Amino acid sequence: QDNGFEQFIINYCNEKLQQIFILMTLKEEQEEYVREGIQWTPVEFFDNSIICNLIENSTTGILAMLDEECLRPGVVNEDTFLTKLNQLLATHKHYESKETQNARRVTDASLPPRCFRIHHYAGKVTYNVTGFIEKNNDLLFRDLSQAMWAAQHALLRSLFPEGDPQKVSLKLPPTAGFQFKSSVAMLMRNLYSKNPNYIRCIKPNETKSAMVFTPELVLAQVRYLGLLENVRVRRAGYAFRQLYGPFLQRYKMLNPQTWPRWDPPTVPCCREGTEVLLAGLEFPAEELAFGHTKIFIRSPRTLFDLERRRQERVAQLATLIQKMFRGWRCRTQYQLMRKSQILISAWFRGHR
């Protein structure tokens, strides 16, 4: 109920994680359909980039203004920090405080004077600015780092690399908010370089009881996790997509016209080969879509059917290979035996 600097930082990280979820599961997927020339009706969704920018913008973001207040000479307290927020963010639709509400002539008794409120993706959160500057300015001073690095213990030296005299910097140590922002940026770069899969957990009730579901609680989580938009995109979109070349290489044995090879292996020719392959399998037309570089399959059932047919065909091909090898081995053994028998008979007749 009482949110301070720590909860603000945690919610900022959650907002960034929600942003990458939106980009990778909603925005990029819909952009790929358009890029591939697939007929598509866009699904509307809320992009929380405006909230992330409100917090992390390098000039007008809340963290930047907090750092500026921490480094500013003179009397610094939370009131001056809140006043600056109210001046710069007075017109921002995802920020509000008592002063901005008064300017808009909004009556709201739930927002105390020394607080501001952010309209996060998951809902509105009120933060008390008390302690923001002190906690953000929780610096590890240079002389302490140098003292720890001067210790002979290897672990202590590894924990305080900034204490190395050869790496001494005259700049002020970074604030807690700046360090957390840098860590979040590094995490985002790491996640963007991967191909993440998401598991969304829903809390069914507040009492942690088995087989008890509170509909209002479940529905609220489904909404703020973005699952409604995600389900709409998934249902309207395609469950599977792959480049024509690898797809044709994997399933070409299912059609005599594409087996054992389909030459030459160029993109237009691979698309033509994929169309010939799937035409022979007689899938419904609405299950397939042919993009510029990829084949799209709508339902998992069609993909499972493809895999089942491939497994059956692979078993048939393995049997054929075994049959041909056994026939070759028996013929070779028979020819050696026949040759040996003729040689033995010739020598025996000559001897007799």
Automatic annotation (TrEMBL):
One term under GO cellular component: myosin complex
GO aspect biological process, one term: actin filament-based movement
SMART domains for this protein: IQ (SM00015), MYSc (SM00242)
Protein name: Unconventional myosin-Ia
Keywords, comma-separated and alphabetical: Actin-binding, ATP-binding, Calmodulin-binding, Motor protein, Myosin, Nucleotide-binding, Repeat
Keyword Repeat carried by entry: yes
Coiled-coil blocks: none
Domain of life where this protein originates: Eukaryota
Family the UniProt entry places it in: Belongs to the TRAFAC class myosin-kinesin ATPase superfamily. Myosin family.
Domain Myosin motor per the UniProt entry, residue ranges: 1-311
Annotated region described as Actin-binding, given as residue ranges: 184-206
GO molecular function: actin filament binding; ATP binding; calmodulin binding; microfilament motor activity
InterPro entries on file: IQ_motif_EF-hand-BS, Kinesin_motor_dom_sf, Myosin_head_motor_dom-like, P-loop_NTPase
